[in-house]
Write a structure and sequence with these properties.
The radius of gyration is 20 Å and the shape is globular. The chain has one domain: L-arginine/glycine Amidinotransferase, Chain A. With about 375 residues, the chain is of the alpha/beta class. It has a four-stranded mixed sheet with strand order 3-2-1-18. A three-stranded mixed sheet has the order 4-5-6, covered by helices on one side. Strands 7-8-9 form a three-stranded mixed sheet, sandwiched between helices. The chain is built from twelve helices and 18 strands.
Length: about 375
């Protein structure tokens, strides 16, 4: 899995339509999306999923009014339940040198599309990847999606990853659990639960993947996950953080906590206020990062970012975090909240990404849907 800062062919987004995701506050959300698309389309293609022809017409009109409708915006009419493609969409991979196609087709058979490929044995991996990856082509991991093991409406979203892979002409692989488990099933995993440096190291959290609360894969242990990350994502070095931030309905996604910004550098959120509920968990995560090592056994460079002040709406603490930024070609989109720490976050990311434009996107309304820039996007590597 390439790092997010590596060149993109496109960014995938889904146009907002579910008013229940922003109850009583939906009206500004399409305009926030228009601002995001306007900035992205200047630098790369935007593959925009809309529910139907009517939704496409409405989106086109709004994007045109916002000066965001360009030839770089491509529409796909596929129904969705929600818009959080980081979690429901496929994860695009780039075959490594030496793993080019050796057969004449380079395609999965219908049976393989349906049942998935077993890459759990290391001695099988080169053979399988050679059979699947066309020269210069890409792969798409289609993990199962079950709405964070929390919500009942996910049937449309479960199909989105396959549709994305087909549209991108990527070869779909459906990861399955390790042979050591009694029953082999497809693995449930959301893109927001992991972050990679593209060199073999991956960040994730115990709260999301190992807790019995919102349990994604009953029976999968730390060892099973680490083998899956090595086999399917090319990331044998896993750094486990602890708990997520307050208000996160995913139960601990790492993209609100800590993110790679280069192969050896991680930005991590901290909460200076010792009375805030996020103080203890974020401090513990910082300590883990300080003790962690990269794929070469070297310490990480760690950059601390202060959390924005608590955002509460209708009595609910919302998961506002600057770590939910999105890195695209030539630009980094950063959620801001009209908070004094906005300036610190923007200045810090400007130093870390000197060749990219840092674009603040006001997310005070968007965060009522419990996600921002990173949650809604999925990159397609060049």
């Amino acid at each position: 899995m390439p790092a997010e800062w590596e060149p993109h062919a496109a960014t995938w987004l889904a146009w907002p339509h579910n008013h229940d995701d922003w109850p009583g506050k939906f009206e500004p959300i399409p305009w926030v999306y228009a601002e995001i698309i306007r900035n992205l389309a200047r630098h790369e293609c935007v593959e925009l999923i809309v529910n139907n022809a009517r939704a496409q017409t409405q989106a086109r009109r709004l994007l045109q009014r916002a000066n965001a409708l360009t030839p770089n915006v491509h529409f796909h009419r596929w129904p969705t339940n929600r818009v959080w493609l980081r979690d429901s969409g496929c994860i695009f991979l780039t075959p490594q040198p030496g793993f080019a196609r050796s057969d004449s087709r380079g395609r999965l058979s219908p049976h393989e599309h349906r049942e998935g490929h077993d890459l759990s044995r290391a001695d099988q991996r080169p053979k399988k990847i050679r059979a699947l990856a066309p020269e210069g082509g890409s792969l798409a991991l289609k993990f199962r999606f079950n709405a964070w093991a929390k919500y009942p409406n996910w049937r449309h979203d479960e199909k989105i990853g396959t549709l994305m892979a087909k549209a991108a002409q990527a070869h779909e692989i459906r990861p399955i659990t390790n042979a050591a488990l009694p029953t082999r099933t497809r693995i449930v995993l959301e893109g927001g639960s992991i972050d990679v440096n593209g060199r073999g190291t991956l960040l994730t959290t115990e709260e999301c993947l190992l807790s019995k609360v919102q349990e994604r894969n009953p029976g999968m242990t730390r060892v099973h996950y680490e083998k899956a990350f090595a086999d399917y994502l090319g990331a044998p070095n896993v750094i486990w953080l602890g708990r997520g931030i307050a208000g996160d309905d995913t139960h601990g996604h790492v993209d609100d906590l800590a993110r790679f910004v280069s192969p050896d550098t991680v930005v991590t959120m901290v909460e200076p206020n010792s009375r805030d509920t996020n103080h203890g968990p974020l401090l513990a995560n910082l300590r883990r990062l300080q003790a962690a090592r990269d794929q070469h056994g070297k310490p990480l460079n760690i950059v601390e970012l202060p959390m924005p002040g608590p955002i509460v709406f209708e009595g609910q603490r919302l998961p506002a975090s600057y770590a939910n930024f999105y890195i695209a070609n030539g630009v980094v989109l950063v959620p801001v909240f009209n908070d004094p720490n906005d300036r610190i976050a923007l200045n810090t990311l400007t130093r870390l990404f000197p060749t990219r434009t840092i674009v603040p996107i006001y997310a005070g309304d968007l965060i009522w849907g419990l996600g921002t820039m990173h949650c809604m996007t999925q990159q397609q590597p060049a």
